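Per your request, structure below.
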């Protein structure tokens, strides 16, 4: 692939940053909503939070993950960075796999399960068994997602570890 002109590179990088910012913002929103769920006994509020997270998991999370991956791959292929020339890019690719598994897949499943458990068991038995377990995994997922996104931002800024050593 031919390398991008400076203008095209800046536009692609701008799009990449916008999609990454949407991912981070949505993750913070998930954190706020999940804290609300954990600290409330109002079944209507809890169900609303889960429904909001579920809608975000099926829309904003998916769109931002796809947009970030597409623009990231195009940036790698259209610039001197490449897909596997630098260790920091490989680390970002591994973290992207984590973000894809946790984001559009994990968050969608955990929020759907939260909705299902709330409508099946109601508020009176919401803090027992499966509900608590689901809330725990949702918190773990949000934490891992947040850490992986922050790590990807830091890797993009500092670009540690340099170029991979060529085998030969």
């Amino acid at each position: 692939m031919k390398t991008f002109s400076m203008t095209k590179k800046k536009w692609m990088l701008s799009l990449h940053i916008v999609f990454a910012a949407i991912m981070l913002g949505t993750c913070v929103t998930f954190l706020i909503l999940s804290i609300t769920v954990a600290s409330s006994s109002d079944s209507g509020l809890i169900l609303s939070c889960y429904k909001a997270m579920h809608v975000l998991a099926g829309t904003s999370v998916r769109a931002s993950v796809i947009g970030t991956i597409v623009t990231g791959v195009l940036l790698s292929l259209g610039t001197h960075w490449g897909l596997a020339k630098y260790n920091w890019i490989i680390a970002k690719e591994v973290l992207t796999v984590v973000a894809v598994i946790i984001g559009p897949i994990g968050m969608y499943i955990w929020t759907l399960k939260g909705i299902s458990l709330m409508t099946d068991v109601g508020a009176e038995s919401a803090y027992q068994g499966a509900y608590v377990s689901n809330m725990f995994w949702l918190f773990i997922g949000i934490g891992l997602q947040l850490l992986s996104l922050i790590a990807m931002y830091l890797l993009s800024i500092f670009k540690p570890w340099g170029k991979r050593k060529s085998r030969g």
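Residues 87-121 form the longest helix (35 residues).

Regards,
D.
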